[in-house]
Amino acid sequence: MLPPPKTEFDAETTISPQLGIFTRLLNNQLTTIVIILFLMIFLLGSFTRTFLTANNIFNVLRAFSWIAIASFGQSMVIIGGGIDLSSGSTMAFAGIMTAMMLSYGFGVLVSILIGLGFGVFIGFINGILVSRAKLPPFIATLGMLSILRGFCYGLTSGWPIRDLPRGFLFLGQTDLAFYIWKVPLPALIMVFFVIISYIYLSKTKGGYHIYAVGGNEYAASLAGIDAKRVKYVIYSLSGLFAAVGGILMTSRLGVAAPTAAQGYELDIIAAAVIGGISLNGGEGNVWGALVGAAIMQILRNALVLVGFPAYWQSSAIGAVIISAVMIDQYRKRRI
Amino acid sequence: MNEEKQKDLTPIQNTQPILELKGICKYFGGIHALENVDFAVFPKEIVAIVGDNGAGKSTLIKIIAGVHAPTVGEIYMQGKPVEIVSPIQARELGIETVYQELALIETRDVPANFFLGREPTLGKMGIFIDRKRMVEETVNTLNSLGIKLPSLSTMVRYLSGGQRQSLAIGRIMPWGGKIIIMDEPTAALGVKESRKVLDLVLKLKEQGCSVIVISHNMRHVFNVADRIVVLRGGIKVGERIKKQTTPDEIVKLIVGAEML
């Protein structure tokens, strides 16, 4: 005789604390994009002679570090169920504020702190608009994008700020010697930020609450989590991280231009989304954003190295964003 | 309607209620969700709140759970007047709630949901999560209740309805709540899964808790409840000891058949 049909309740095994390492790796959203990243590196390494040179790698690292740092802040906002379209403008604005302070003769440290302070302030205003005024995050931060860009032009009358002191340029232009390599300082700062962002999101109570609010704000509030406070925190952090990226960018370029970082918000968001951070909130982590930012920059680099027509680059990048997200969606459905 | 209240409710009225609501009114704008409702819960009993859609059941329990504040009315716990202004405060008073919407975070794993909003932390700083303790306590509690889940690291999204409901109920267990509120605990569950949930409800009573259950399912109500409170249009239209009533009578009260 056949055993009686089992319901779902019976079919389960006893509870085990964790799944096997292999299953977890397969289910991990990072796996897909890391494979894509290594595939790209492998292909570029075998088809171009220049890609895998230390010089080129560090150039790529330096170039994407500020996007990546801003993307970590963006990731927190997206994981918390929002979006921050103002991060590109915040980068430019923080760079300009820092450069203006420097040109007024303030010290490097003070100027940077003022630039960072403005980043936090802008993010905090975004947080107020979203949680107090209850504006949709898309609208609030779109408005902020425009307002800040206006400030960038208005405060500089459209002229870039040049002649920044050497002590400031040091930040973005120094390479630190590691064995035989010269690692760019911005890349190290990026590594520092990805580690603290990861620890904050995954190991602290505050991070748990960000995921909870992004996953289901109503449920989080019923469980006694202060969703408003979470929003202040994530938008402020996004502003701070964008300011860090913007100041590094200004230091690297040696000039604070009102047109700087235009359209960067889309790269920043794309890095997070390619990295498996769901725009629905509550999912993903900053390692994904790091890999996403790397994929974007390697792609730009690769298109130059293989001689892809410059005018068509943005189409290629768009296609890659779409395919990366499609692959990730496919993987999720399969589970 | 007045003679309803004169019915014999003595077996439980001898003791002091653990929770008592007096003259509760709740208005949302012009809508009267609750009108002068008295409601009491006694130690170690299961009270069912029944009524049609829009009768005010969910509003009533949300007032007890600290989600809504009553427009008018008083709340007493063990005879002392209290104000329940937030879900956190309700929990501090020993009131735990399992919501109809389940209130789980689908994108998070089992321990994160189990400890949602009250994650244990390491040390005195209260910053870093004590993940080890979370996993251990989740496993211990779920095992002791006989709740089986595929794996703790599964996102709640991939759990079945019954598994979610077990988790939603299981996670209130370790907190020593004296009053457990359950909004439609068996809604959207199969027969076998419902049975499990009702067993959990009875288990809670055995452990000395009082349980307030909202349900549409008469059979489930009559399976577990000691007392049944009927709401209609925001008014308490009846209150019966289960042993002294029948499903028919309750259904009549719910739809207001005596008025026809």
Automatic annotation (TrEMBL), chain A:
The keyword Signal does not apply. One of its GO terms (cellular component) is plasma membrane. Its main location: membrane. It comes from Candidatus Atribacter allofermentans. One of its GO terms (molecular function) is transmembrane transporter activity. It is a multi-pass membrane protein. Keywords: Cell membrane, Membrane, Transmembrane, Transmembrane helix. It is found in: Cell membrane. The chain crosses the membrane at residues 30-52, 64-83, 103-125, 137-156, 176-201, 232-255, 310-327. Signal peptide: none annotated. The lineage of its organism: Bacteria, Pseudomonadati, Atribacterota, Atribacteria, Atribacterales. This is Ribose transport system permease protein RbsC. It comes from the Bacteria. The keyword Transmembrane helix applies.
